[in-house]
Design a protein that fits this description.
This protein is α/β, with parallel strands linked by helices. The protein contains 16 helices and 19 strands. The radius of gyration is 24 Å and the shape is globular.
């Protein structure tokens, strides 16, 4: 099916969920296709750090989906809108109810704003009473989006494979870490994965293929495989020896979710609904979309190979951990708070020192006491926190909203300030902040401040219990940053000298 010939260069589309995994890849694809894009977000700062945020045709509008009037105003002047919101990372066990309410608000607002269509990416799976809570919620969202009478185009996908996707990270970590896997029977469930590249193509092209408007499509790759075979392919692409997979009937979805939480970067709140859905076969029941939007569908092996190559090249565009609300810096006014403040003079320019600060976490580590950080990460995983395994999207670059192990970037000023808010399970609120200030003769100072606001007596006891370790952890980290800054400065000077000669 060829495009309708519509001049979409002047067409403005809205995206709700642009800070998420799919949305963050869809926006630049739409801009490349000539559309004007308006992003409806809770935290504009999360998008301002993206490389495409200042491209022509881009708008960022702060919007509260719980406020219908706010959504109506944000949608006015748009021809269509993508709805890519999923609250599983922020609403916990009540995500289904919350998602349904937000979708209905959006649908009503779309009708009042006289939108031409809504496009939605949902979940693949047979309908019926045995459908998991997660997939049932996706169906409910489809229904609620039509509350305002606007045609809803639905794409239902199974596992989406791409660097940084939740499905990809589950597969990679399970296969990398477990040469022998005791698994539930869902390991033999059929799935029809699709590459994120193909998903983005369907979403973009559907805007100008009018035959897709208001219809529902199953989308998947060219093959249906059981999860056992997908794990085998992942192991082969990772260059690992054969993985032994032993299915047993006694592991419930609840137990599976805890296992996924402990072994992979995903938290229990995300792992549980995903594990529950693994019992449902997710295979396309029709392939009409292939005639309407023809494209070369990437195989499971090809999608995994591409994703692994992007991880190796440090080219992960978006990650599952980027989605979700950011409460921002804790409000330290009122109540008792504890502060650990340290400062160091660095014989290096501010740009080198800030680069050193931005390398913390992930595979690089925390400059000192990495064993203690690892232990703390495991303890956090055991009580349901994110732990250290979330890593970071990029080993060098940092942006507002990025996850760095069990921290979240809540403040960023290039070459000046980096603020991290703890997302680990704590009896209080914690903030780790770095400030870099230029000094004379090409030097600078680094101020490192750890703040903790306890919640009740338990929080105070926690602070006093870990205080003896602060010298090892925080002082060691500052000294490590200073060494790294000097190394970076030396490298920068050598590169500059080489270019001059």
């Amino acid at each position: 099916m060829q495009p309708t010939g519509q001049n979409h260069a002047m067409m403005r589309v809205a995206i709700s969920g642009a800070t998420g995994y799919i949305g963050g890849r869809l926006v630049p694809a739409l801009l490349d296709a000539g559309y004007a894009v308006r992003c409806l977000v809770r935290s504009p700062e999360k998008l301002k750090a993206r490389s495409w945020s200042d491209r022509p045709g881009m708008e960022i509008v702060q919007t509260d989906l719980d406020d219908i009037e706010s959504v109506v105003q944000a949608l006015e002047g748009c021809a269509a809108a993508y709805y890519l919101v999923h609250s599983m990372t922020s609403a916990g066990s009540k995500y289904a109810e919350y998602d349904g309410r937000l979708a209905r608000n959006f649908g009503v607002a779309a009708g009042r704003a006289k939108l031409g269509s809504i496009l939605y990416l949902g979940g693949l799976g047979e309908t019926g009473p045995n459908l998991s809570k997660h997939l049932t919620s996706r169906r409910q969202v489809e229904y609620e989006l039509g509350a305002g009478g606007v045609p809803v185009t639905v794409f239902r996908a199974a596992m989406i494979i791409g660097s940084g996707s939740a499905s990809f990270e589950i597969l990679r970590y399970l296969v990398e870490r477990l040469p022998v896997m005791i698994t539930p029977r869902w390991v033999n469930t059929l799935s029809q994965p699709i590459s994120v590249v193909n998903v983005i193509r369907y979403l973009v092209d559907a805007l100008h293929v009018i035959e897709t408007k208001g219809r529902t499509f199953d989308i998947g790759g060219p093959e249906a495989l059981c999860y056992r075979d997908i794990m085998r392919i992942m192991a082969e692409e990772l260059g690992l020896k054969r993985r032994w997979i032993i299915p047993v009937p006694i592991l419930s979805p609840q137990l599976s979710s805890y296992w996924i939480h402990l072994i992979t970067p995903l938290t229990h709140d995300i792992a549980k609904p995903l594990a529950e859905g693994l019992k449902n076969p997710v295979v396309c029941r029709e392939d009409r979309i292939r005639d309407l939007i023809p494209q070369d569908l990437i195989t499971v092996r090809g999608a995994i190979r591409t994703a692994l190559a992007q991880v190796a090249r440090n080219e992960v565009e978006t990650s599952w951990s980027m989605a979700g609300a950011i409460p921002g810096d804790p409000d330290w006014a009122g109540g008792a708070s504890f502060i650990d403040r340290r400062q160091a003079m660095v014989e290096a320019p501010a740009v080198a020192a800030f680069r050193a600060v931005c390398r913390i976490g992930g595979s690089h580590g925390w400059y000192a006491a990495n064993a203690l950080w690892t232990i703390r990460g495991w303890l956090d995983r055991l009580v349901g926190g994110p732990g250290l395994r979330r890593g970071r999207r990029d080993s060098e670059l940092v942006a507002y909203g990025d996850a760095i192990d069990f921290w979240r970037v809540v403040g960023f000023e290039l070459n000046r300030r980096l603020a991290l808010r703890a997302e680990m399970r704590l009896p209080g609120d914690a903030l780790l902040e770095f400030r870099v200030t230029p000094a004379e003769n090409g030097r600078c100072t680094i101020e490192q401040v750890a703040r903790f606001r306890p919640k009740g007596l338990l929080g105070m006891l926690y602070w006093y219990a870990v205080s003896p370790l602060h010298y090892i952890v925080f002082d060691g980290m500052l000294r490590g940053i200073r060494r790294e800054a000097n190394r970076i400065a030396t490298s920068m000077a050598a590169t500059k000298s080489l270019h001059q000669t």
